[in-house]
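Methods: example folding runs. The two proteins below were folded one after another, and each record is reproduced exactly as written to the output file, sequence line first and structure-token line second.
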Amino acid sequence: MARVQKLKVYRTVAGFYDAYVAAPSQKAALAAWGSDRDLFARGIAEQVTDPALIAEPLASPGTVVKHSRGTTAEQIAALPEQRAPAAPRDADADADPKPTAKPRAKPQAKPKPRPKRDELDAAEEALTSLRADFNRKKKDLAEREAALAQDRRALEQARSSRMEAAEDALRGQKQAYEEAVRRWRASQD
């Protein structure tokens, strides 16, 4: 008989997401994430036991399930401010006290804003929601199938015992009828 391994749920950071996976070991979790480094030893990955967080990964063992670490606005707000790089110092400028004329710099065009991820995030969340809904419905069907199979076994057992009793009753009634007919014929002679 094959040995069934108990699954544990592990989590690591994947960009703006937490990536969860239900696996029998840390090594299997690393393989599911596609990592060739020990993220657990580096403190980047951990085992999760919170029932609210482990339900979805346990429904699809070995599949990486991503959850956003916050809204897009919260993630953008958490980014560090970007500062303009300092101009390189010219070693000769410190030695020569005379001011030098600097060429007039061209005004830089305002950079285009970074594309918004709102639609991508919404699509990822929709897919995650659909997967969870599918897995929940699949589990419900499996439970209903198991209950129906149990009902079928009980019905077949009840049928078997009732049929046996009915067949015994029929045989008894048939014998009694045949005996009554035999006595009736004997009385007719």
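Second run, written to the same file directly after the first:
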Amino acid sequence: MKLAFSTLGVPGLPVPDVLALATAHGYHGVELRAHPEEPVHPGLGAAQRADVAAEFKAAGVEVLCVAGYARLAAPGGDGPVVDETRQLLELAHDLGAPFIRVFPGADPSRPPAESDAIAARRLGTVAEDAAALGVRILLETHDSHRTGAAAIRVLGLVGHGHVGALWDVMHTWLGGEQPSDSYAALAPHLGYVQVKDIASAEDTTPLPLGAGVLPLTECVDVLCRRGWDGWLCWEYEKRWYEAAAPLAGLLAGGREHVLRLLDEAA
């Protein structure tokens, strides 16, 4: 498996510094948080996008994903959500990223089946755009659809090869789903897996991998037993927890922990 980390852990850090961290600590890729407060976002012009792509290529580091904030089941018309998703797809294409990340974002007051249909319709609308650009749209297990069982209610309605799933192991655990069940649900659609660790369900402050309660051993074990050989991305949510330890000092230990889990699973 390949290992990446998310720039959510190093908010606002310039691209050369992100790449320096990746190369110094043996990470194969980076998940880019695509928000206007970050160096890389859909507002970049063509020349800036080309520069970023060239920097990654020169460093030998892959852009794993453009992690956007489009909410596929959000209230309102389809237009804004579809347009936002298309902008993420274009940015990912220009950077050479294979994936974009989107959220479910359903209104909790709306019947789940109605939200599922809205999200599926919007995903279906942009699926051919994704195929033309060579980028997959990954619906993250998050917010209103935090389990694999919930995510596949949407993905099953779409049924398109360029629409898949991003497994965030924290959210499936918070949703009460066992890793084996999450994998079974998501496997036909799985793009990659976000790993992380936290103190408890009540305290989701990010911790070094292996220092918290999330079932990382079980997650890696089920992936290995089923022969899955994709990406593991450490999403350390420093952006939302200013008091959390800096990610830079944890990257080496995080990589060692994941490699140890992979060795044990093998």
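Comment on the second run: The two ends are 12 Å apart (CA to CA).
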